[in-house]
Write a structure and sequence with these properties.
Elements lengths: L22 E3 L2 E6 L4 E4 L1 H7 L3 H4 L25 E2 L21 E9 L3 E11 L6 E9 L17 E6 L7 H7 L9 H14 L1 E6 L3 E7 L33 H25 L6 H12 L6 E7 H5 L14 E8 L15 E2 L6 H8 L3 E3 L4 H8 L8 H4 L3 E9 L2 E10 L8 H38 L6 E2 L2 E8 L8 E10 L3 E12 L1 H19 L4 H15 L5 E9 L4 E7 L5 E3 L6 E3 L17 E5 L4 E6 L1 H4 L6 H12 L6 H12 L9 E8 L7 E6 L5 H15 L6 H18 L5 E7 L2 E8 L19 H8 L2 E6 L4 E8 L7 H8 L1
Parallel strand pairs: 1-10
Antiparallel strand pairs: 2-3, 2-7, 4-5, 5-6, 6-7, 8-9, 9-10, 11-12, 11-16, 12-13, 14-15, 15-16, 17-18, 18-27, 19-20, 20-21, 21-22, 22-25, 23-24, 23-26, 26-27, 28-29, 29-30, 30-32, 31-32
Helix pairs in contact: 5-11, 6-11, 11-12, 12-13, 15-16, 17-18, 18-19
Length: 830
């Protein structure tokens, strides 16, 4: 311990002047949690008390520490007692260590330590408050290291005792306060700041010599330490000079070897600890924060992290070495300076380039760390020139700078700018090696997060492109959908929904779920959805459609399984035709009484199993009934049977709602109360409005060309009855073309002509010929080939499909605004 002279410090308040200087004391640091158990045990504690860290952590503090008066459960008195508590020696304290113990305590004890006989121990105990688990900070020192070696002085006249004093009682109080975090265990900047503030308020630890000399305590770690709660540089509280203090050279070779081994051990311990703290997730933003907080304040005081813009966006970037045009995105700035000091000058989120003369450019082009031991005014001015009107020189001048690349697989993803305060030791070549190793490990973690983010973005883009854009209104029904990505296992899955127009004003409603997550599931989902849409256009019965889908899944490869629920709604007949392939059953909400029920369907096996028969059922529905179809991700609740989720689905589906969108949101809220949904969700709700009998007109026409004139006449007359006369000219012309084609190719059966008035005017012409017409280029002398071109030009939408008996050709015309249902406008607006 260093002892000063009489002129080194001001006199102690209430006492005569006396010598005070920094007391360099080997300290043991222990933290006790709210349950009275040891939660931190430093190496100094192991040396002082002789108990390994593995045995100390989790044990009752009373079994290990001589803190009489700080822990009331201790009944045995110590030889020297304690002082400094609320109620005098031995205050009461509840089991959470936060009760009546409101002042620091200090004391002295004699202990029997294995292999060291009896030792005298000085200790200081601070009560801690706040959100953290720490409730008591204990510092301890061996008095043997405090004895002077001057034989001329009588030790009987000198008493050494622990005590407390305001840090403002000493010269260099600000630097003294700044050095206080050295004695704290490894923790975040916020936690360290909270504890330091409490210690400064309660009193700085001091040594009292002969009851009149006060010496503030600073840790003497024995070897030069790295910055951090467990490994920090030596400091004193003397006024700073222009020359930085250097550590004294060891006097003996044994000491040199000890220092070298200790430095290597510190290097490995730091890297091992950092490796354990980063990479806890594949989220890029969280990984960046973990890397920044792992090095501040232990290794550096400021850490700014820059990544390529493409890395932040989850995109690929061009190969080759970065250049002055490469833009870098500042993603994190962690520091121990005053809050907000860096925010205005170097805000997070800024994108910028770096000139070739800067150390940052050198680092990212060479892929090697760049060390600037001391940023001079000239160097600071050159670096600050790139920041335009913002002056960063006060933030970097006089500090030690280390720039380390964040690279993986020989590709530079970004870099970290590390700065140390002027009062800390400058970065050395050893620090450069440590920083390079740290950056290499962090680079691999960031690259894993980047590739994961990139794959997720690709999968999301693929899935989003494959999910259909379903209109809010189709023939005889209103439709609302929701797709929610997963939040735990993987954001991208294979859930999908679709609605397909069928002949006869019918609509096919489908919901499916590919087993698994990720890009493969999304790709398979797209193929199966396309297969369903294509097969549905052939107007196959639901059982045959699932049979075909099963064959498609088998051709995609082994292990590709998916559940699927397929329903065909006929608004004219007022029924649902459903088939199920291993999917959860749908819910039908009756408009008449608001009752909801799970439809009892044959479950079937998932498509892709192969060789399993499927069954279908028909269910009668009435106008206003609602059909709710969803995937199992919505009804699966962690820790509960799926029946609970299905019951909640039924109850929430029956809840009244102002619109279809509100009804979907009500279901989602009811089934995602904890926000812990692990799987993606597809939800489709259809309100089955049906079609009134007078909204459908149908005729049978003989396969005779003379029937074309009759077809035109009955269409014009029917449109007049419906008040749709403005559509008569176009409709009559297109019907004439389609009926002409039908009677020309029909064989035996009559030609069917149907008009359906819904949200559009739908016209369908059926005949018993299986050859589907298509658009063709007609020459000047060709007699045929112009009919479908006329239909394509005049209709809002048209199409063809095969049926059991032949084919259907249809077209749609929008209704005049004055004849559209007001509810339809509201639905479209929503």
């Amino acid at each position: 311990m260093d002892r000063g002279t009489e002129n080194d410090a001001p006199p102690r308040p209430g006492a005569g002047a006396g010598p005070t200087s920094a007391g360099r004391v080997p300290l043991a640091v222990v933290v006790v949690d709210r349950a009275g158990l040891v939660s931190h045990w430093s190496r100094g504690a192991r040396r002082l008390f002789g108990v390994p860290k593995e045995e100390a952590i989790g044990r009752n503090a009373l079994d290990l520490l001589p803190v009489s008066g700080a822990l009331p459960e201790e009944d045995e008195p110590f030889p020297y007692g304690a002082y400094g508590s609320c109620d005098g020696p031995g205050p009461g304290l509840d089991t959470s260590l936060g009760g009546r113990f409101c002042h620091p305590a200090a004391g002295r004890a004699r202990l029997t330590v294995p292999e060291r006989d009896r030792v005298d121990v000085l200790w200081w105990a601070y009560p801690l408050v706040g959100p953290g688990p720490e409730r008591l900070l204990v510092l301890a020192a061996d008095t043997a290291g405090l004895r002077h070696d001057d034989p001329a002085r009588d030790p009987a006249h000198e008493r050494i005792a622990p005590g407390f004093a305001l840090h403002t009682d000493f010269e260099g109080a600000d630097r003294l306060a700044g050095g206080l975090p050295e004695i704290l265990p490894s923790m975040s900047v916020a936690d360290a700041t909270r504890i330091v503030a409490q210690i400064l308020e309660l009193g700085y630890p001091v040594l009292e010599f002969s009851q009149h000399d006060l010496v503030p305590v600073t840790p003497d770690w024995g070897v030069p330490r790295r910055a951090g709660p467990r490994a920090r540089p030596d400091r004193t509280v003397r006024a700073r000079t222009e020359q930085r203090p250097t550590d004294p050279a060891p006097d003996h070779p044994e000491d040199a070897r000890h220092l070298e081994h200790a430095a290597v051990r510190e290097h490995l311990e730091f890297l091992n600890e950092v490796s354990g703290r980063i990479g806890t997730s594949l989220d890029l933003a969280r990984t960046v924060i973990e890397v920044s907080r792992a090095v501040v304040p232990r290794f550096t005081d400021v850490a700014g992290t820059y990544l390529r813009e493409q890395v932040v966006a989850g995109e690929e970037f061009p190969a080759g070495v970065p250049d002055t045009r490469t833009r870098w995105h500042r993603v994190a700035v962690e520091h121990t300076d005053a809050p907000g000091r860096w925010d205005d000058v170097v805000p997070v989120g800024e994108s910028m380039t770096f000139p070739a003369h800067t150390p940052f450019f050198q680092c990212m082009t060479t892929g090697a760390p760049v060390l600037v031991p001391y940023v001079s005014e000239e160097a600071g001015h050159a670096i600050a020139a790139q920041f335009e009107k913002r002056d960063i020189r006060p933030l970097i001048n006089g500090r030690s700078l280390l720039v380390v690349p964040l690279k993986a697989r020989d590709v530079v993803l970004g870099f970290m700018i590390l700065l140390r305060h002027p009062e800390r030791p400058v970065f050395t070549d050893t620090d450069r090696v440590t920083g390079a190793e740290l950056a290499a490990r962090a680079g691999l973690v960031l690259d894993n997060a980047r590739m994961y983010t990139y794959q997720e973005n690709v999968a999301e883009t693929l899935q989003d492109s494959m999910l259909p854009r379903i209109p809010a209104r189709m023939a005889g029904c209103d439709i609302a959908t929701r797709y929610l990505p997963g939040t735990l296992l993987g954001r991208v899955g294979g859930d999908w929904f679709d609605a397909v127009k069928l002949p006869g004003a019918r609509t096919a409603l489908v919901v499916g779920d590919v087993m698994g997550h990720g890009l493969n599931s999304a790709a398979m989902m797209g193929q199966l959805r396309t297969a369903v849409a294509t097969t549905a256009a052939l107007d196959l019965p639901p059982v045959q459609l699932l049979r075909h889908l099963d064959d498609v899944a088998l051709r995609l490869g082994d292990g590709y399984l998916a559940t699927c629920l397929y329903a065909v709604y006929d608004p004219i007949a007022g029924d649902l035709h459903l088939a199920n392939a291993g999917h959860i059953p749908p819910v039908l909400v009756r408009a008449e009484d608001g009752r909801s029920e799970l439809l009892d369907l044959p479950t079937g096996a998932p498509v892709g199993v192969g060789g399993v028969p499927f069954e279908s059922v028909r269910v009668q529905v009435r106008p206003g009934d609602r059909l709710v179809m969803c995937t199992d991700g919505l009804v699966e609740v962690r820790g509960e049977d799926i029946g609970v989720g299905l019951a909640t689905l039924c109850a929430s589906a029956a809840h009244p709602a102002a619109s279809m969108d509100d009804a979907c949101d009500t279901i989602v809220r009811a089934l995602d109360t904890d926000g812990g949904r692990k799987d993606d969700v597809a939800l489709l709700m259809a309100r089955l409005n049906g079609l009134a009998p007078d909204a459908v007109a149908e005729w049978r026409l003989a396969p005779d060309p003379a029937e074309v004139r009759h077809a035109r006449a009955i269409v014009r007359r029917q449109l007049a009855d419906w008040g749709l006369t403005p559509l008569a000219d176009h409709a009559e012309l297109m019907v004439s073309e389609l009926v002409t084609n039908a009677v020309r190719h029909a064989h035996r059966r009559p030609v069917a002509l149907r008009l359906v008035r819904g949200d559009t005017l739908l016209c369908e012409v059926d005949d018993d010929d299986h050859e589907v017409p298509y658009l063709r280029r007609a020459g000047a002398g060709d007699e045929f080939g112009r009919g479908l071109r006329v239909v394509s030009a005049l209709a809002r939408e048209w199409g063809t499909s095969r049926t059991k008996a032949g084919k259907t050709v249809r077209f749609e015309l929008p209704l005049p605004i004055s004849r559209q249902d007001p509810a339809m406008h509201n639905s479209r607006a929503k």
